[in-house]
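Q: What residues go here?
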């Protein structure tokens, strides 16, 4: 029997998902205690309101990731909207035995990459939160290792901008979004071994370039 608070699967989600900030403010208390995977199961059965709870939960991390890649608020908002629309349309493909977070962030990553290709000019991204965490890797007593207190945020930002997407994305997903290695590998469609190589290489390149700048 159809639950009275469920939405019809024929409704157009685009009208409800115009942007993360424009979502309706009605209460989702009856669903907020459910897991992401349970909500996706309900969405597959036709509950748009269940999917709206997921949008509420993930609109900030999705927008954050899109903005880190696109470095433009309007572009990031558009990519975020497109991410949730793609996720809703592909909800029947979601494996409820897997976590929803890495799945939606993977869609956000691919959507942002598409946006970058369309405008043909890659705008590098950096995050003050990420920079602060990544700077911790440069601390210690080893000779030639920089003291985090000596690092200027703008200096680190400039060096980070010089890294390729292949070396930047794993670092951002790990240190900014707090994802586990296995989840990052799944999001980027690479093996766990390849991910570890990219993380190590990215940190090493960032550190080496910062050292060269300080010595110049």
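A:
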């Amino acid at each position: 029997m159809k639950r009275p608070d469920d939405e019809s699967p024929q409704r157009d989600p685009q009208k409800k998902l115009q942007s993360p900030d424009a979502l309706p403010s009605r209460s989702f208390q009856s669903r907020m205690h459910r897991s992401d995977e349970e909500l996706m199961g309900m969405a597959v059965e036709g509950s748009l309101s269940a999917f709206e709870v997921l949008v509420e939960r993930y609109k900030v991390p999705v927008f954050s990731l899109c903005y880190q890649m696109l470095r433009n608020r309007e572009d990031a908002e558009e990519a975020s909207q497109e991410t949730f629309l793609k996720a809703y349309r592909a909800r029947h493909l979601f494996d409820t035995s897997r976590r929803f977070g890495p799945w939606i962030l993977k869609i956000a990553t691919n959507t942002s990459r598409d946006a970058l290709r369309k405008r043909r000019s890659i705008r590098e991204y950096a995050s003050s939160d990420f920079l602060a965490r990544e700077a911790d890797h440069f601390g210690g007593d080893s000779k030639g290792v920089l003291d985090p207190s000596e690092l200027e945020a703008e200096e680190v930002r400039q060096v980070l901008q010089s890294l390729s997407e292949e070396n930047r994305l794993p670092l951002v997903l790990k240190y900014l979004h707090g994802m586990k290695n296995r989840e990052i590998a799944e999001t980027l469609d690479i093996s766990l071994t390849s991910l570890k190589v990219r993380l190590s290489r990215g940190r090493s390149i960032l550190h080496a370039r910062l050292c060269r700048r300080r010595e110049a």
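A: Context that may help when evaluating the design: The domain at 13-119 is CATH 1.10.1740.10 (Rna Polymerase Sigma Factor; Chain: A). The chain has two domains: 13-119, 128-215.
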